[in-house]
Design goal:
The chain has eight helices and ten strands. The chain is an alpha/beta fold and 281 residues long. The chain folds into two domains: 101 residues, no CATH class; 127 residues, 2-Layer Sandwich (60s Ribosomal Protein L30, Chain: A). A four-stranded mixed beta sheet has the order 4-2-5-10. A four-stranded mixed beta sheet has the order 6-9-7-8. A two-stranded parallel sheet has the order 1-3. Helix 1 packs parallel to helix 4, helix 2 runs antiparallel to helix 3 and helix 6 runs parallel beside helix 8.
Length: 281
Amino acid sequence: MREIPVEKVAETVARLCQEANSDLGEDVLAALRRARDREESPLGRQVLEQLLENARIAREESVPICQDCGMAVVFLEIGQDVHFVGGNLYEAVRAGVADGYALGYLRKSVVRQPFSARVNTGDNAPPVIYTDIVAGDRAKVTVMVKGGGAENMSRLAMLTPSQGREGVVETVVRAVDEAGSNPCPPVIVGVGIGGTADAAMVLAKKALLRKVGEPHADPEVSSLEAELLDKINAIGIGPSGLGGRMTALAVHVEVFPTHIASLPVAVNLQCHAARHREAVL
C-alpha cells in the first residue's frame, strides 16, 4: 500500500488549474494550425491566426487564455493500492481549486444556489469530481476547465435502438448546428454513446480529454468520428461563427454497452481553448 498525502493532491490541483488556464496543449495548437491551413474563408483564417496569437501571449505571459476561466472538473484515477493520508481527499481537491484560482488571479465563476440567489462562492469551488478506481499504486489527477458558453450547449438524446447509427449522426450534427457560435468554434465535439443517461454524459465529457484528433482504437467508432467531423464541417458555421469549413477541430466518441431498449447519445462541446492538464502522483 502506497501512501499519498492529500496536501500533495491539493498542491497538484492548484498548479493544474493555473496551467490549464494559460497554456494550451501542443495537440490543440497543432489542430488549430491545421485548421488555419485548411480553412477556405479568408475571415476564418484570420480568426484562427488570432486564436493562435492569443494562445501564444497567454503562454508567454502566464495569463488566462479566456476571460471565462471556467468551472473546474477534476478526474481522479486512483490506483487500488493507494491510500490517501492527512485528511479528506475531496476536501483537498476543493482546496486545490480555491488556491489555484486565487494564486493565478483567475476569474471565479461558480455560484452557490443555481436556481435562485446565485451568489458567487468567491473561490470557484466546489469543483465537479469524477473518480475511477484502477490497478496500481499511482493516482492520476486531471483538471479540465469548462467554460459556460460551451457547456451550455450540451445535449442528451434518448434514442430508440431502431434509430441506430443514422440517428446518432443526426443527433450530433443537429446539436452542433443549433449551438452555432455559442461554444466559440472551432470546437472539439465529445460524444458519449451507451450506458444510461448519466453515464453517456460522463462519457461525452471524458471524450474531450483525448488528444485532439486522435482516433478511437475501434475502427467502427473511428469511422463514425470521421463521418461526424465531415458532416459538421459541411454546416458552414466556421471559426467564431463567421463562416467557413473549420467548425470543429475533432470529434471524439466514447461508447459503453447499454440496455436492449436504449440508445443514449450525449454531446458535450469544448471551445477552441480545450483547457485541461494532468499529473501522476
